[in-house]
């Protein structure tokens, strides 16, 4: 199984109080979903400045999770509340709610369908208009189920998934569910900057610039990282 290393190309400030659950990028801004009961929010954040330019709090009843951008809409799921929200991207006005079939962890958009993780080895595909499930795949690494799939991003015909409580990102074939490589980001956050920091979680891709950004829960930085491909 190939295991990639990494190179840090740049880093940008990130709110240390943000319990990052979902991350997406568009036009110089990160769209971030944060978690925690009473703390969950949807944010539009300047990449370079780290400043929050638009925010909507979910309320104490919801634990926010993954987010995905669908044109002029943003979709955000919740953890155990069985509901997802659709927002107008420009204003964060909530325009729709929908039911999700199981727990919500990560969310990504492949141009045709939403991809939902629930903390297991299974990814569920949702119709972008009805939000009804249209299928699912089990994810395997070396022939064994890979549990704890968390935040997701779709990059160049592959699904990238944070593996909860690890420093690894799995690169998954969307048709077979097979992990084709792991990206090992161990050591990305220096020990002296890791006060209160929790696990790696958050992947966003700049399709126009070819940049990939990662962060974690309560991390002080968003990193622009580049893979060093190697077999190990």
Keywords for this structure?
55% strand; eight-stranded mixed beta sheet; mainly beta; 232 residues; single chain; Methylamine Dehydrogenase, Chain H; 22 strands
How is the topology of this model organized?
Elements: E1 3-13, E2 20-26, E3 29-34, E4 41-46, E5 52-57, E6 64-70, E7 73-78, E8 83-88, E9 94-99, E10 107-109, E11 114-117, E12 122-126, E13 133-138, E14 140-141, E15 144-145, E16 149-155, E17 158-163, E18 168-172, E19 179-184, E20 200-206, E21 211-216, E22 221-228
Parallel strand pairs: 1-19
Antiparallel strand pairs: 1-22, 2-3, 3-4, 4-5, 6-7, 7-8, 8-9, 10-11, 11-12, 12-13, 14-15, 16-17, 17-18, 18-19, 20-21, 21-22
> Could you give the order of the helices and strands?
EEEEEEEEEEEEEEEEEEEEEE
The strand order across the widest sheet is 16-17-18-19-1-22-21-20
The CATH architecture can be given as: 7 Propeller
Top CATH class: Mainly Beta
In the CATH hierarchy, the third-tier topology is known as: Methylamine Dehydrogenase, Chain H
Q: How many structural domains can be distinguished in the coordinates?
A: 1
Structural class by sheet pairing and helices? mainly beta
- Rg is 16 Å
Q: Mind describing the biggest β-sheet?
A: 8 strands, mixed
CATH superfamily caption: YVTN repeat-like/Quinoprotein amine dehydrogenase
């Amino acid at each position: 199984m190939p295991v990639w290393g990494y190179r840090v190309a740049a880093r940008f400030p990130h709110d240390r109080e943000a319990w990052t659950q979902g991350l997406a990028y568009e036009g110089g801004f990160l769209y971030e979903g944060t978690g925690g009961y009473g703390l969950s929010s949807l944010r539009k954040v300047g990449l370079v400045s780290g400043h929050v330019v638009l925010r909507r709090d979910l309320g104490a009843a919801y634990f926010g999770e993954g987010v995905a951008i669908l044109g002029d809409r943003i979709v955000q799921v919740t953890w155990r509340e069985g509901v997802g929200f659709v927002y107008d991207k420009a204003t964060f006005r909530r325009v729709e709610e929908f039911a999700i079939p199981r727990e919500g962890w990560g969310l990504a958009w492949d141009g045709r369908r939403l991809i939902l993780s629930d903390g297991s080895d299974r990814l569920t595909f949702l119709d972008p208009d009805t939000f009804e499930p249209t299928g699912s795949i089990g994810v395997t690494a070396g022939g064994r189920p890979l549990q704890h799939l968390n935040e997701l991003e779709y990059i160049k015909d592959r699904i990238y998934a944070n593996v909860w409580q690890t420093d690894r990102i799995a690169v998954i074939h969307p048709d077979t569910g097979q992990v084709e490589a792991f990206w090992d980001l161990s050591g990305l956050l220096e020990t002296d900057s890791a006060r209160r920091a929790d696990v790696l979680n958050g992947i966003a891709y700049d399709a126009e610039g070819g940049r990939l950004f990662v962060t974690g829960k309560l991390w002080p930085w968003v990193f622009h990282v580049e893979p060093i491909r190697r077999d190990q």
